[in-house]
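ok so I'm stuck.
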Amino acid sequence: MPELSLGSASTSYTNQYAPALLYPISRQLQREKIGIKENGDLPFSGREVWNGYEFSWLSSSGKPVIGIIQFEVPATSPMLLESKSVKLYLGSFSGTFFDSKADVLARLEADLSAAAQAPVPVVIIPFEGSLVGGVDPAIQCLDELDIEMPSFSYEPGQLAKLPTRKVEQTLYTDLFRSLCPITGQPDYARILIGYTGHEIDKKRLLQYLLSYREHEEFAEQVSERIFLDIMHRCAPAKLVVAAEFTRRGGVDINSHRWIGFEDWVYRRNYRQ
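replied:
not stuck anymore, here's the structure
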């Protein structure tokens, strides 16, 4: 069984695949407290269904891949899985390269089944990318663009505008991640950018946004840094940056900065 300081205020987060982080606990030790005897028939059927909403890994090109992970642990398994260890284990995939989604699933099922000492089926559900309340056809998702990420060092120099006519566009990505500067925990977000001006190179914009993956910054400053970088390097006439972070501890932060627009209407997105 791995060492894990359960409830410790200080926790190390790794982004390199680490199945040893999983911390199984005997079910029988807990069941004895409620009168369920060892080796006896259980008085019920059941399972635990786990959902992970911030699961990600790196493709062979270095581009992040995201999805909702769901797995089921049968109530008949000898071991249950301690929740903090599951969180740390799933987070360890985030900086690890895998050749395919099938490889990721195979690792997940093998590791979780070994820890629970029972078969644990796993599915990865892709994000659909829709906005709550319907999708404006003018809103474009950047996440299907074919790019390479040789490193994850914050790089505003990736930003560039194209020598084309002026456009009005709204773009977004669900692949964004930064790190909390206090705890080092990953913060996932949808970044939505609306602007009027010379067209921004979409591939380079996505590379720029993904360069925050190992960058430490508060959510509020993320939106301001992105806003200023785009203004300085692309000079749009109007700009709005919305950084809509997923929930942590039951709370989500949505940081909006704009110029040239009267206001920005917040719409809760499906990841929240």
